[in-house]
Amino acid sequence: MTIQKERVGIIGSGNWGSAVAKIIGENVQKHPETFEYPVRQWVFEEDYKGQPLTKVINESHENPKYLPGIRLPNNVQAEPDLIKTCEDCTMLVFVLPHQFVRGVCDDLQGKVNPSVKAISLIKGLEIKPDQVTLFSQEIGRRLHLTHPVAALSGANIADEVAKERFCESTIGCTSAQAGELFHRLFATPYFRINVIGDPVGVELCGALKNVVAVAAGISDGLGYGDNTKAALIRIGLMEMRKFAKSFFGGVEDVTFFESCGVADLITTCAGGRNRRVAEAFAKTGKPIDVLEKEMLNGQKLQGTLTAMEVHQFLTHHQMTKAFPLFDAVYRVIYEKAPLDTIVRNL
Ligand SMILES: NC(=O)C1=CN([C@@H]2O[C@H](COP(=O)(O)OP(=O)(O)OC[C@H]3O[C@@H](n4cnc5c(N)ncnc54)[C@H](O)[C@@H]3O)[C@@H](O)[C@H]2O)C=CC1
Ligand SMILES: O=C(CO)COP(=O)(O)O
């Protein structure tokens, strides 16, 4: 009897997408009994110094735009065609800035094998004013997948992970079998994974901590110091938990003690892009989109957009007052409220 090996596709190739491609490429080589050797990675094609980025990646085995200085394994193949990337895949890893997921799902409709095992590394939420959905659920629904989509999230600043500095991450997955397979795909001695049965909690933590990171950055920009930042982290954690409990069933308190919870809050409020750009916003008063372009070289912020989306949703449900930190971040970024609003109404 021949056992069918897993063919893995990665959708996304930014800063985290590239760091994760390194891990996946290496683990696929380490487990030839489980995975097929080539790993296709969809790259949103762009010009890099006069050449297509996919060509540069495939020739140099490096993504010099989004993860410079890190060698990608030879089996990772950059592919500009989204549909071709997913062709014949039995496992798909979604790792995109959340603002692009809708477009990608539109393009993939009817083109993905419904029995594919998928996992979302996206930190964001799909919000319509009256409704909040997880991207794992949205991907599963839009692509008619038969298995629930898992989630991976943790205290994982991409550049540090790519340099193999020890950290932890959390996979939320309701199937023990799929959890084992995803563990095999992602775990390394420097990227330690805990698989838990609360995918909803894992994903919510990853999305909402970005709003708290914006508050931390504003606080840094004002020079408020470490005590204030610790207070914002604690209050932010409580609002994340309240949001999860108010709008989703079954989220477990212990999830907030995993890497995806408190650990990610700490790292993101210390070293993340949302924090950094929010600090610059507080110091310069320049618009966020201008700072994003100036400071991130094509990488994308998630926290400011999530703050707006969460605000729309909370406004619809007349619950902004129950989330004073989330509300303050929205008002400072989008309504020109004074910067110290982030501590004034807590
Ligand atoms: N960078 C990090 O340290 C970490 C990021 N994450 C999360 O992973 C997700 C992906 O983040 P990154 O890989 O860092 O992305 P990124 O922030 O580096 O974003 C750039 C990516 O967006 C792509 N892009 C630009 N325009 C596009 C379009 N119209 N359609 C599709 N793609 C387009 C670019 O080609 C590039 O691959 C986000 O939700 C982020 O919060 C999670 C953990 C760590
Ligand atoms: O999610 C992250 C670390 O776990 C990265 O956060 P930023 O997007 O703010 O850099």
UniProtKB/TrEMBL annotation:
<dbReference type="GO" id="GO:0005975">
    <property type="term" value="P:carbohydrate metabolic process"/>
</dbReference>
<dbReference type="InterPro" id="IPR013328">
    <property type="entry name" value="6PGD_dom2"/>
</dbReference>
<dbReference type="GO" id="GO:0042803">
    <property type="term" value="F:protein homodimerization activity"/>
</dbReference>
<dbReference type="GO" id="GO:0005829">
    <property type="term" value="C:cytosol"/>
</dbReference>
<feature type="active site" description="Proton acceptor">
    <location>
        <position position="209"/>
    </location>
</feature>
<dbReference type="InterPro" id="IPR006168">
    <property type="entry name" value="G3P_DH_NAD-dep"/>
</dbReference>
<keyword id="KW-0520">NAD</keyword>
<dbReference type="InterPro" id="IPR006109">
    <property type="entry name" value="G3P_DH_NAD-dep_C"/>
</dbReference>
<feature type="binding site">
    <location>
        <begin position="273"/>
        <end position="274"/>
    </location>
    <ligand>
        <name>substrate</name>
    </ligand>
</feature>
<feature type="binding site">
    <location>
        <begin position="12"/>
        <end position="17"/>
    </location>
    <ligand>
        <name>NAD(+)</name>
    </ligand>
</feature>
<feature type="binding site">
    <location>
        <position position="123"/>
    </location>
    <ligand>
        <name>substrate</name>
    </ligand>
</feature>
<feature type="binding site">
    <location>
        <position position="100"/>
    </location>
    <ligand>
        <name>NAD(+)</name>
    </ligand>
</feature>
<dbReference type="InterPro" id="IPR011128">
    <property type="entry name" value="G3P_DH_NAD-dep_N"/>
</dbReference>
<protein>
    <recommendedName>
        <fullName>Glycerol-3-phosphate dehydrogenase [NAD(+)]</fullName>
        <ecNumber>1.1.1.8</ecNumber>
    </recommendedName>
</protein>
<dbReference type="GO" id="GO:0046168">
    <property type="term" value="P:glycerol-3-phosphate catabolic process"/>
</dbReference>
<feature type="domain" description="Glycerol-3-phosphate dehydrogenase NAD-dependent N-terminal">
    <location>
        <begin position="8"/>
        <end position="177"/>
    </location>
</feature>
<feature type="binding site">
    <location>
        <position position="273"/>
    </location>
    <ligand>
        <name>NAD(+)</name>
    </ligand>
</feature>
<dbReference type="InterPro" id="IPR017751">
    <property type="entry name" value="G3P_DH_NAD-dep_euk"/>
</dbReference>
<feature type="binding site">
    <location>
        <position position="302"/>
    </location>
    <ligand>
        <name>NAD(+)</name>
    </ligand>
</feature>
<feature type="domain" description="Glycerol-3-phosphate dehydrogenase NAD-dependent C-terminal">
    <location>
        <begin position="198"/>
        <end position="343"/>
    </location>
</feature>
<dbReference type="GO" id="GO:0005634">
    <property type="term" value="C:nucleus"/>
</dbReference>
<dbReference type="Pfam" id="PF01210">
    <property type="entry name" value="NAD_Gly3P_dh_N"/>
</dbReference>
<dbReference type="Pfam" id="PF07479">
    <property type="entry name" value="NAD_Gly3P_dh_C"/>
</dbReference>
<dbReference type="InterPro" id="IPR008927">
    <property type="entry name" value="6-PGluconate_DH-like_C_sf"/>
</dbReference>
<comment type="similarity">
    <text>Belongs to the NAD-dependent glycerol-3-phosphate dehydrogenase family.</text>
</comment>
<dbReference type="InterPro" id="IPR036291">
    <property type="entry name" value="NAD(P)-bd_dom_sf"/>
</dbReference>
<dbReference type="GO" id="GO:0051287">
    <property type="term" value="F:NAD binding"/>
</dbReference>
<dbReference type="GO" id="GO:0141152">
    <property type="term" value="F:glycerol-3-phosphate dehydrogenase (NAD+) activity"/>
</dbReference>
<keyword id="KW-0560">Oxidoreductase</keyword>
<feature type="binding site">
    <location>
        <position position="300"/>
    </location>
    <ligand>
        <name>NAD(+)</name>
    </ligand>
</feature>
<feature type="binding site">
    <location>
        <position position="158"/>
    </location>
    <ligand>
        <name>NAD(+)</name>
    </ligand>
</feature>
<feature type="binding site">
    <location>
        <position position="44"/>
    </location>
    <ligand>
        <name>NAD(+)</name>
    </ligand>
</feature>
